[in-house]
Design a protein that fits this description.
The protein is α/β, with parallel strands linked by helices. The chain folds into 2 domains: 1-55, no CATH class; 64-297, 3-Layer(aba) Sandwich (Rossmann fold). 35% of the residues lie in helices and 22% in strands. Helix 8 (211-214) links the parallel strand 8 and strand 9 (222-227).
Length: 302
């Protein structure tokens, strides 16, 4: 999908919502449609609703915003339903933004729903959380890093989201997946440790997680994406993480080409490891989403 018109429209929307311009007719239309409290301007929540309306996928879908209250804290997630509704249970994919990001960031960067329109795709919203590498005061949104951290608020949030999705929609319980970038990739590793029985496969990007070393989970297929010039989550750290996972999953020492820049390491425990090593930095690689979907489609729980 070409995202330039969306970004331009979003920028125009914000300008029109906050500053009078000569384009009074367009501004009036925006206010008429989205100014729910009638105060003559768009609040942050009203701008978010307007932006979501503009941010349609190429197939015309828009995500549903669902809200939960977990231990008194309001949490949200964007949920894309399958493009074509039918009676068949759908695969379910979770996508987690990095530290300082948002569910909208993950939606725009990952775009998993565009590569797997038959799946239910969920982007959960993190809350202010101390970072392990940056933001020690916890002013930016993120995810817990270990079991028990932050009162397990994000694991509780995940449990509530999964429960709701199973109640509201037809979920294929043999095809549930998680992916995430940076801190979101670390949370994907944590979900493997803490909730691994729920998942068929994982795809963390630019991430490591010490919880895996302390409490190794049941082997699962995993695609790990890493940039050789990652200066934040250093590539050497990720290499050690990958080696640990390969040993844990009883993978062969020799790999074969699986896709461009990707190596497949077969597993004696039916839990292969695929590595995507790109010549980039910590930035999320745009070529990752179709490869993640390709990997997920190859794996489901027995």
């Amino acid at each position: 999908m070409n995202r330039l018109p969306v970004l331009v429209a979003a920028a125009l929307l914000l300008v029109l919502a906050q500053h009078p311009t000569n384009a009074q007719t367009l501004r009036d239309r925006l206010l008429e449609r989205f100014d729910k409290d009638g105060d003559g301007k768009l609040s942050q929540q009203e701008r978010r609703a307007a932006f979501q309306s503009l941010r349609r996928n190429s197939d015309g879908r828009t995500p549903e915003t669902l809200t939960w209250t977990i231990d008194g804290l309001e949490r949200q997630a964007l949920v894309y339903l399958p493009k074509d509704s039918n009676d068949e249970p759908a695969p379910l994919v979770f996508g987690f933004h990095g530290h300082g990001g948002s569910m909208q960031n993950a939606d725009r960067s990952f775009g998993l729903q565009n590569h797997w329109p038959e799946a239910i795709v969920v982007y959960m919203q993190g809350v202010p959380t101390p970072g392990q590498l940056t933001d020690p005061e916890g002013k930016r949104n993120g995810w817990q890093s270990s079991i028990g951290d932050q009162g397990d608020r994000d694991l509780k949030f995940f449990d509530a989201v999964l429960k709701t999705l199973r109640e509201k929609y037809k979920v294929d319980n043999s095809r549930i997946y998680s992916t995430g970038h940076s801190n979101g990739g670390g949370f994907t590793y944590l979900l493997w440790v803490a909730r691994g029985e729920q998942f068929a496969a994982f795809a963390p990007c630019a991430a490591v997680n010490r919880a895996f070393l302390k409490q190794p989970p049941e082997p699962r297929p995993i695609l790990h994406i890493a940039g050789t010039h990652d200066a934040l989550v250093k590539f050497a750290w990720q290499e050690r993480m990958i080696d640990t996972v390969r040993r844990h999953n009883a993978c062969s020492s020799e790999g074969t080409e699986w896709a461009s820049d990707c190596t497949l390491y077969p597993s004696e425990k039916d839990a292969p490891v695929v590595t995507m090593i790109h010549n980039g930095t910590h930035k999320y690689p745009p070529e990752a989403p179709p490869l993640i979907v390709k990997f997920f489609k190859e794996h489901q729980k027995p």
